Amino acid sequence: MSVLLIEAFYGGSHKQLMDLLQEELQDDCVLCTLPAKKWHWKARTAALHFMQTVPTSANYRVLFASSVLNLAELVALRRDLGKLKKVLYFHENQLAYPVQKCQERDFQYGYNQVLSCLVADVVVFNSAFNMESFLTSIGKFMKLIPDHRPKDLEKIIRPKCQVLYFPVRFPDVSRFMPEHKLARLQKVIGVKRNGDAYQLEGLPGRQKSGDLMKNSNAHGESGLCTPEHEGLPSPSPAPERPNKAEASESTNPCQGEDKQHLPFNLCNIMSGWDSRQRPLHVAWPHRWVEAVYCGCYPLCPKALVYPEIFPAEYLYSTPEQLFKRLQNFCKRPDIVRKHLYKKWFDLGSEEELLSHPGCSHRMTLPQTEDSRDCPYHIGT
After folding, report:
1. Would you kindly state where each structural domain of the chain is located, as residue ranges?
2. CATH 3.40.50 fits 3-163, yes or no
């Protein structure tokens, strides 16, 4: 039990990260959490709760916590924890987090994070954008103090900082993918039809999809791509395209005496459609590189964290550019259907792939209502 994991908001990506760490560390860690409710109160009072509930141990060596926790308060209340190597992880930062126009930014939450950075030994951000937006905002943020303002806090904190892209485990979605995209993925990163799914969280080896679904998934929705979800039957291979004679007898693939016994399979539903007749779908996902992994075409604003993830050809700068791109896709949907995500397939080795930030999921700051900040994926 050398690692103490503390999460004051145990839900969503915060829970996912802690669960993965606990799984990898196994018996060498202790996990202490609070439920993912009333975030503002957790940020204010979690340290007092953990002061009373974190078990004491002489075996602790490392304390790992997210920035929701006021780490400075906790180590002041629990002197034994102050001696540990303290790692603080930022999913988001309160100095750049968007607020409603009619709402002033609450100084206390950002101040808590600055204090936490000062007492931490290592400060980890999920993207370079998240890190830089926090560090470069400290000086301006501290000017809100009426007098006796602290100086050079950015210089003190910056040497402790580093970027660690958020880890992702991809489920087996091979049966939902077009053949040409599946074949390319199989060649580059080892994806197999209804077989093993590759792990892209920097851990070696592969994991069977059944085990993968039990252990991972970004938001508890892994069943979407597994036959166990909602009691859905296991999908069968996509049927062959009917010839003209067969099509004349029945143009509805769901017609027939046993239509109620057909398994749910997206490939089955769409296999009888001419690809030129199938509409494109615009998705607005909360989990990007999963979307790209599933074969979507990313189309993102040239702002925030997106230039850090995607090459320039997938970015737009103005609403007019976005409209023109979408218009061209409507005229030539085959561009999207035949497209293979460029950056992954330009990488020459498995090691390069694993180290590329576009292959690791990362949390980004919520978007504004301005259309320039509206990211899209174009799905097939």
Report:
1. 3-163, 168-240+260-379
2. yes
Q: Which H or E element spans position 89?
A: strand 85-90
3: β partners: 29, 62
Instruction: Specify the 3-state DSSP secondary structure of 172.
Output: coil
Alpha helices, H only, 61-208: 71-77, 79-82, 107-119, 128-135, 138-142, 153-157, 179-189
Q: From residue 16, give the alpha-carbon distance in Å to each of 4, 19, 23, 83, 166.
A: 16, 5, 11, 27, 10
Give the Cα separation of 220 and 15 in Å (integer): 10
Block residue for tokens 């550019």: 321
For 342, other C-beta atoms within 10 Å of its C-beta total: 12
Residues 6+ apart with CB under 8 A from 206: 190, 196, 197, 198, 199
Q: What confidence tens digit (pLDDT) does each residue in 255-284 have? A: 444 444 444 444 444 444 555 567 888 888
Query: What does the pLDDT look like over 311-321, one tens digit per residue?
Result: 999 999 999 99
- Cβ–Cβ contacts within 10 Å for residue 310, how many? 23
* Tokens representing residue 328 in the block: 């061209």
Q: What is the pTM of this model?
A: 0.69
Among 302, 301, 264, which Cα is nearest to 375's? 301
